[in-house]
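Hi both,

Apologies for the delay on this - the queue was longer than expected. I finally got the pyridoxal-5'-phosphate-bound model through. Below you'll find the protein sequence and the ligand SMILES exactly as submitted, and right after that the structure tokens for the full complex including the ligand.
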Amino acid sequence: MARDALELAFRHAIGYLDGLDGSPAARVDLGPELLRKRLAKSLCEGVAPPQVVRELIDDAQKGLLGSAGGRFFGWVRGGCLTAALAADWLNSVWDQNAALYTTAPAAAIVEEVVGEWLKEVLHISARASFALVTGCQMAHVTCLAAARHALLAEHGQDVERDGLFDVPPLRILSSEERHASLDRAVRLLGLGSRHIVDLAVDRDGRLSQAALERALQDNGKQPSIVVLRAGDVNTGAFDDFRALVPVAQRYGAWVHLDGAFGLWVASSTRYRDLLEGADGADSWAADGHKWLNVPYDCGYAFVAKAEAHRASMSHRAPYVTPSLHARDEIDWNPEWSRRARGFGTYAALRQLGLPGIAELVERCCGHAESLVAQIGALEGAEIVWKPVINQGMVRFLAHGAHATGTADDRWTEEVIRRIALTGEAFFSGTTWRGRRVMRISVCNWQTGENDVSRAVRAVASVLANLESEVKP
Ligand SMILES: *Cc1c(COP(=O)(O)O)cnc(C)c1O
């Protein structure tokens, strides 16, 4: 029976992956009602494993997005590299609890190895500590917990013991276009989102040096965290680390870098310059489940002051035996019991090797550039943002002399919806600097030339059909 259920899952998995090219990039959203009707079953009696698996496949099928495939350009989503996917399956089979070396020896050593590899790929100091967490947001939490520890220790406070009572409030200085996950990390750490200071960006989305300097001068003694960005979620923009990091350092601020996907350009000689000066930060957050194409969920935190990192996370109980000769994950992570997520990253990094990572990054950037150029050249389309790396934006213009910005917004939304309906490609929308736009993000190892042409053809046909509806 165990075998039947597993074989069923395996056969479905292979069929699903083989069929990605011919299946819709997004399905027509059936709505939560229908999915609920199918999935909310009775628990009055147990069901044999093969039936559970078969029904799950049937019932979930219509509610799956095609993000595993190469024609999915929504949000910032990676796929799953083959070796990483296989390692992820094995991970579930092996069922290790990667809290400590003693609870999962191989997993602990795999994480040691992966941490060193990641620092090499991402050009982070070999002395930095690291943690494998669920995603970039939790990497922010982990890094900023270390920052909170170090900055308050300078004020004589042991924050882990005494909490945030009777201490000067920390402030967090970041660009107004930062990723919202930072705000939640700040909330979770009890720092209070009110203490985030929004700083202006220039036209290219880079944090203004003058604005940072002014903000730091204002109440210069207040403990501060400066959050810089490698890869804006819409534009892929990079802050000017070479100019900004020394400014922050002059005021004793902790510099944290959000490099969810952007940090991966360190692997490429073509794009690496964007990160110049980034190695001077105090902490770095990145994702595995985006550009490295590792299965969810997987993010990475790195901290230059390893002792601050350890002090903020390390935890002991009488039944927890520390290892003298290996790294215990519990010293560096927010979780206790946890998935051995090092296996997926280990497999992905080995499959690609250094040249493969660079090639993946450059290929995605090339496809993003080509998608934006070709879609932007279509009648009725307009380029909003040419990719710096793998993210770009376009917008669609409503017709008629009286067409307003609002009409363009609605029209853009409608085009995005209709593209998804074709099943040929999926893009997501956003409001960027006050206008509705279509985002184009290429992160999946599977995306090839053919996917790009199929997507462009789909957009062209949607625009042509809309045109004929408007002018019959
Ligand atoms: C996706 C993203 C995050 C949040 O990462 P999660 O893995 O979803 O927690 C943070 N910053 C940027 C720039 C991102 O693109």
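Main takeaway for now: The chain has a mean pLDDT of 95.

I'll put the files on the shared drive as well.

H.
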